[in-house]
Design a protein that fits this description.
62 residues, mainly alpha, elongated
C-alpha cells in the first residue's frame, strides 16, 4: 500500500471538503424562502424527505 507524503495533507483535505460543501450549499435556496417553496412545489411529493415536508408545511402553507 502506498502512502502519500504530502506536506500539509490535512490542510489540503480540509480545504477540499470546505470547497465542496460551499459549492453544494450555494446551489440551493434557503429553506422557507419563496424560491425554496417554488422548488418544492415542482418536486414530486414522493421525493420529499420527512424534514422537507415539515419545513414546507411550516414555511409555505401556514
Amino acid at each position: 500500500m502506498t502512502t502519500w507524503n504530502i506536506p500539509g495533507r490535512k490542510i489540503v483535505l480540509g480545504l477540499s471538503v470546505l470547497m465542496v460543501m460551499g459549492t453544494l450549499g450555494a446551489c440551493s435556496p434557503e429553506v422557507g424562502s419563496k424560491e425554496w417553496c417554488a422548488d418544492m412545489k415542482e418536486k414530486p411529493k414522493g421525493d420529499w424527505s420527512a424534514n422537507e415536508a415539515t419545513d414546507f408545511a411550516k414555511h409555505c402553507i401556514f
